[in-house]
Amino acid sequence: MGVPVRDGIKPLRADDLGAFLALTLRDPVLDVFAEYRARGTSLDARWLGAEMWGRFSDGGLVAACHVGANLVPVGGSVDDAVAFAERAAGKERTVSTLVGRHEHVEAMWDVLRRSWDPPRDIRWRQPHLEIGSQPLVEPDPAVRLTVAEDFGVLYPACVAMYTEEVGVSPEVAAGGEAYRARVRQLMNRGWSFARIDDGRLVFKAEVACATPYAAQIQGVYVAPEHRNQGHAAAGVAAVVEAVRASIAPRVSLYVNEWNAAARAAYARVGFVETARFSTIMF
């Protein structure tokens, strides 16, 4: 059983799961990543491969923070985010990414920058987009779930997209074997979608995480020779339709503020902005 805490921060355990899910239910779309991790592991650190810190006030859970490869504040206020940052600042940095609501990440970084090394990149105001209805454009009927035989075509596109987006190859950042395993895991789970014409990839995207309430998509990519032909909007529309039919009723993603082409494509599909995220990468 977890140690009772009325005020302050403690690592959450399995007996805190109910309170944690009540916290994420306040905004199940913005907090889909944390809820997905909690549901899949029951907050057992052995399966999390990380910690989930909780902040308590008057005996109730008011905020949380995922502390692993990703540092992700969950719910709560800016003051809660600062409290988590002060706790993290007393430890050696092990995270590679700090990501979440802009106001929370900004406040956390104001604390952490005093003791952590400079980041590789900061993306301050990334529009967080959602859709909970049928797409506004015709879905591409050629977009489908990937199968094992697609791996040889799909994997290079995943590497290219990650490198283009993040600025470093995932085979360097995550390790080649680990990244290949992640791509195969998403394929096996039915979370990987692509259009492949005559053995050549045109479009691809994946579901990164999902709960009964929401799913977040990632890795949207159109091969360079097929860009500016409408494949992004039609492909994302197909993914939205498939996800809403079999995974979760609401679909979200976040995009770099400067990526005008992607933002325009998502707007055509019917996504609307609901928040701003920030991502700090080390």
Description of the molecule:
The chain is built from nine helices and twelve strands. The model has no long low-confidence stretch (mean pLDDT 95). Strand 8 and strand 9 form a beta hairpin. The longest helix has 20 residues. A twelve-stranded mixed sheet has the order 1-2-3-4-5-12-6-11-10-9-8-7, sandwiched between helices. With 282 residues, it is of the alpha+beta class. Keywords: Acyltransferase, Transferase. It holds the Pfam family DUF4081.
Topology diagram in text:
Elements: E1 8-11, H1 17-24, H2 32-41, H3 45-48, E2 51-57, E3 60-67, E4 70-74, H4 78-89, E5 97-101, H5 102-112, E6 121-131, E7 144-145, H6 151-166, H7 170-189, E8 192-197, E9 200-210, E10 214-222, H8 231-246, E11 250-254, H9 260-269, E12 272-281
Parallel strand pairs: 4-5, 10-11
Antiparallel strand pairs: 1-2, 2-3, 3-4, 5-12, 6-11, 6-12, 7-8, 8-9, 9-10
Helix pairs in contact: 1-2, 4-5, 6-7, 8-9
GO molecular function: acyltransferase activity, transferring groups other than amino-acyl groups
Keywords: Acyltransferase, Transferase
Protein name: N-acetyltransferase GCN5
